[in-house]
What does this fold into?
Amino acid sequence: MRIKIFMLLVAGLLGTGLGLCLASDSPSAATEEPPTKDPVLEEVLAQVQARYAGPGFAAWFFQESTLKAMEITDTASGRIFIKRPDKMRWEYDTPERQTIITDGVQLWMYRPEDKQVMVGQAPTFFGDGKGAAFLADMQSIRDNFAITLADTNDPQTYRLKLIPVKPQTGLTDVYLSISKATHQVVEVVTHNEYEDETRIELTNAQFDQDFDDALFRFETPAGVDVLQLDEK
It folds into this structure.
């Protein structure tokens, strides 16, 4: 049961637009004729980019992942640490302790209770806007997605709809809720081709954090089994 819950939550996370893509390696919509710019949307994007322009930030998160076909919903919570341009650390406190770490090259998924760490390549799992990239590099939103303003029932937020410029398996759209007062991303909702949904709420954000790179590396403890995520 622990493995099922963990893998469901991880599958939801890896499919989110909360990932670690490198904007310089991603296709750009600039090669196509640009659509007419919405001045409100442009202002929102500019404010959000300015808000996340510091070296890094941390926040608390609540994650809800739903597999529609199986009618399964699991929740989790913990803390996220981001360091520009490509490092992140997700520390899950509930439903049990789990950690997902990447230094932009390597990816580790550690389950201490199972004494197991899964290891893979970050670009394989977090490329092209998957996982937490635009939180580390907001320019990647413009590079990887077609963006429009979406309707919202909350007068305190803007809601942006993001469609991948390059079609992706496991990611059909992303919705960002942006606080009008602080220009912070307060919610991310993503869907895939099966209509599965992952919703992540971000609270108590701390900006301009200059974290040590060691926070985004993982040293395998003695007695912990190592599994390769990208083994064929």
The mean pLDDT is 84. Residues 2-28+54-227 form a domain with the outer membrane lipoprotein receptor (LolB), chain A fold (CATH 2.50.20.10). The longest strand covers residues 56-67. The CA atoms of residues 110 and 117 lie 4 Å apart.
